[in-house]
Amino acid sequence: MIKSLASMKTGEAGTIKQLRGSGNIKHRLVDMGLVPGTFVRVMKFAPLGDPIEIKVKNFDLALRVSEAETIDIEVSQEA
Amino acid sequence: MSDQSTTSIRIALAGNPNCGKTTIFNNITGAKQHVGNYPGVTVEKKEGECTFSGKDLLFIDLPGTYSLTARSLDELVARNVIINDEPDVLVNVIDASNLERNLYLAAQLLELERPLVMALNMSDVAKEMGVHIDIKKLSELTGATIVETVGRNNVGTTELLQAVIDVAKEAKKPSATIDYGPELEPAIKDIVNELEKADTITYPLRWVAIKLLEADPDVIKKVKAFERTEAVLAKAEQWREELKDKVDLEIIFQEFRHSFAVATYNNAIKGTPKEIETRSDRIDKVLTHRIWGLPIFVFVMWLLFNLVNTIGAYPQGWIEDAFTALGDWAGAVIPEGQLNSLVVDGIIAGVGAVMSFVPLIVLLFLGIAFLEDTGYMARAAFVMDRIMRACGLHGKSFIPLLMGYGCSIPTIMGARILDNNRDRMITILVSQFMTCSARLPVYTLFIGAFFPVAQRGNVLAAIYFAGIVLAIVMAKIFRKFLFPGESEPFVMELPPYHMPTLKSVLMHMWERAFLYLKKAGTFILAASVLIWFLASYPQDVPMSQDFDAARDQVTQEYEARDNAILLQYGIATDEQKAPVMAMVDEMTAIQTEQDEAAAEEGEEEIGDEGLNGEAAATDEAATAEDANAAPEVPDYFHDLQVANADAFPVAWAIYLNNQEKDEAIGDLDQKESTEKLEGSYVASIGKFIEPVMRPLGFDWKMSVSLVTALAAKEVMVSTLGTIYSIAADEDNEQPLQVYLRQDPSFTPLVAVGLMMFVLIYPPCFAAMAVFKREAGGWGWLTFFVVYSTALAWVAAFIVYNGGRLLGFH
């Protein structure tokens, strides 16, 4: 099942399929290792529901929901 | 082995944020560091040196970055140092526990073709996590010399230095290259050919070719600056056109670099590390908990605020007291005159003002260094980002802004924790809206003078609230008009928690305090001397009377009265006089002690006192009425009276006479300083700007006090005191409040407008000095002063005229 990173639940994990954003945001995401084929897991949401914390390449990364919406994930592990 | 060549080796340290680069830098260079800024930008430049096996090593600590694009100032600065300065050796510090991501930066460093040493840092943590790195293999794959280090325990430092010297001697460029695949490689080779033909560019050619294909704006600009490069640029453009439909040119190069990092990582590690829950994950579960995350954050901020502003107030007070004492001493030693005044009121007061902020800065950066080094700072931003974003700010902005309720200086300096320059600039541009503690005495003065007790708390709260609203509105306006364009993504690493070393925290703290003293200190000192000059010159102000003569006259008059009293009691000889005079001295001493005790008590109650001035003011009136009746002997003279019943009446009479004399002379002193101030340049400025301030309902007195308050906000109280010829300072406001109420040009509405003006217009000179340093120059400082003064004027105008329309006065 493919869905955006922003709509995943805590504990769900999967592989990045596609980045739909552009410009600075896309570049920053790619520089942090969010390239297609990378495995990510949603660790938690901030107290106010935004930003999101994910684990990627064995480190923790925080990104805003608006940015996570541009990332499509092939979900492979349920929460 | 010690080759005694005198030339030094230049080394640049590169690496990801949080990889321990700074710890290694500190281990190597110790105290031999220079901190400054790169020319023209506010990116911090750190250099240091050391001597190892007979060689001088010069280290430059590059900004920590994840990549080397032209999209971030830090990254641009880092790569420009490498390609322009061509350091002899590039040391890439790598977090071994996070090898895969760190290799992405390494891939970009390889392309810059400098001799490369990799410091595989935190190798202990990596082993704990079950990551076993085959160093030989990694070295083969990257073509770099590799040294294992544990920066926290200073392990591997000598091995690293030895490797640096060896690599420098060989001057060997790394052999590994990144393969960009069958579609891109022909394009790269073609452009390299073209670059070779031009033969003018001094940068690594393959790197330039790749960057041209990436359409890197900075590299394009650099290439244009060289001769005979038109063909190169045309070729690159032609290839981009050709490739753009086949590949995603925007990220294809980054993807290949990641592939290189992933392949290198997979080949260099033995065994597969498991996805395990680390201790850091467990700590994080509590600190960023859905429900407890915010309360914990609030508590941490409360601790930090109190560390800086409550605990910091003690050493700040000691430093101020010490400088006051120094001023008193110098005032007594240096002969009376202009030099005395310059040294005491100008220089010592100025240096004192500079030094008194040092404890606040030291404590703030002690706190910030601890929060940053432990890893909590990133979590604070994570927790607060949603709220701060609604205000047009970044999650991390909260911390420096909160400090602003103590003092604006830590806010402006603390904004350095923001990585993005736009966020940092917006944060410091709205810093003054956080009411600093020096403005509190100004508010309590006016609120106490013009508002009934029941309303005072509300008025004060309204002013603080107005500051917050203004900060939000202005932050949004600045974001939209001053720093427009694509918004910076909030993509932030949450580094693993760890206990910082005492050394790193202390070094961080020392750096800030030093920066403050070095750059801001001189400016503040100069400004203090300027304000002193404006308030005390010209010296030959025409006076309404000869005050020295008047004082002499008063002294003679009261001496005559003393003698009359003594005669009345039949005392003529010096032997008879001596015990009486001794008793008078004793009474004076007791009175002074009593006054000091009362003042101290008052200080302790300062919180209430400011808002309960009404009662005290009534007392004042009552005392004034009593003045005509014969004064009663106060209780604390009772012992003296009993012990010496015969001599007491005469001593008491002389004591009263002395008190009256002191008061008369005090009045003359006050009148003289009022006239002096009225004739000074400061007053001229106040009168000059009065027409501009008229529409706000401010007269020249308020204008003058606003000018002197630029030195420091609490100075406004003492200036008004001088103008109204009454001794007042921030600790003793009530008598002044009575005078303010009696002045017809002062109304509650004017007072509110004045408080709004004080809230918005530039904070003290010290803050402006720090602002200039941190914002990067006079242009920004000018903008800041102009915008905040204009906004202050508009706000006060709206308050005053709007208030009058609504029927207030």
Automatic annotation (TrEMBL), chain A:
Write out the entry's keywords from A to Z. Answer: Iron
Give the signal peptide range.
Answer: none
* Iron found in the keyword field: yes
Q: Which InterPro entries match?
A: Fe-transptr_FeoA-like (IPR007167), FeoA (IPR052713), FeoA_core_dom (IPR038157), Transcriptional_repressor_C (IPR008988)
- Name all Ferrous iron transporter FeoA-like domain ranges: 3-75
KW Iron (keyword) present: yes
Protein origin, superkingdom: Bacteria
Record-level Gene Ontology MF annotations? transition metal ion binding
Pfam families (UniProt xref): FeoA
What name does this protein carry? Answer: Ferrous iron transport protein A
